[in-house]
Amino acid sequence: MIHTFVLFCLCFWRLIGNLICEQSVCSSGVFGESVSVMEGDSVTLHTNVTQIHEDDDILWTFGAENSPIAKINRAAGIFNTSDVPDGRFRDRLKLDDQTGSLTITDITTQHAGLYKLQIRGAILSSQTSNVSVYARLPVPVISNSSSKCSSSSSSQQNCSLLCSVVNVSHVTLSWYKGNSLLSSISVSDLSSSLSLPLEVEYQDKNSYSCVLNNPISNQTTHLNITQHCHTCAVLISAAAGSLLIVAAVVMCCICRKHRKTHQEGKCYLQLLISTTTKITL
């Protein structure tokens, strides 16, 4: 008997609850999401409903001012998108007539911010979406930062390198040796230029790379030691070549003088001895 009474009370309470929801507005709670997207891409903010009801009133707003940017009210025949005063959403908003989801096309950093959704009807629901937009990353540039080679020993040559990027924000620039992080530098809100130095041995056989990344993408430039540090080898070869050229010029002058005195044999011998001496030095 008691069990029957308890069951009757539960059923009665559920029936009363359904009647209240039908005669007034029931809330489904507040939920939200964070969305990160690359500049130039499209992003869709979903309503999480499969079908708009006839009596649903849907409103999308943007920013702290809650500027209206899209509205659906089937009963009143309203289905439109609207721009904010500065025109940043012009020709960029698309509204799904079945679900009320909002798509922003060709997005830029100007469209980053807070988007709010309100659905009023048989069920009242609200949603917030925080959209972050990141600029496309440039490719890091590696350059030789020294005008001359440094030498830590007579048999070991080093060269100084610089990895650089310009006009970036919310990024980190890093040097890697294989998969190991060597150094890094970051910049946050303001657009600026970054540079990160590295010194390597000319004969180093390890793989090095400079990586620029933000939370959703990255750009990598691999170091070619032979290409970027060729100055060291060129300077050594050029110095040796210069010595030979100077020696040859001196010998020509000596030869001309000896020809005047008809001593070609002595000229040849002195040329051979002098050239050999220069190469040995």
From TrEMBL:
The source's superkingdom equals Eukaryota
Describe the location of the Ig-like domain by residue ranges: 140-226
Q: Which SMART domains match?
A: IG (SM00409)
Where is the signal peptide, in residue numbers?
1-17
Alphabetized UniProt keyword annotations: Membrane, Signal, Transmembrane, Transmembrane helix
Q: Which PROSITE patterns match?
A: IG_LIKE
What InterPro entries would the database entry show?
A: Ig-like_dom, Ig-like_dom_sf, Ig-like_fold, Ig_sub, Ig_V-set
Which Gene3D superfamilies does this entry report, sorted A to Z?
Immunoglobulins
The coiled-coil segments of this chain are none
Q: Which residues cross the membrane?
A: 233-254
Protein name per UniProt: Ig-like domain-containing protein
Species source reads Sinocyclocheilus grahami (Dianchi golden-line fish)
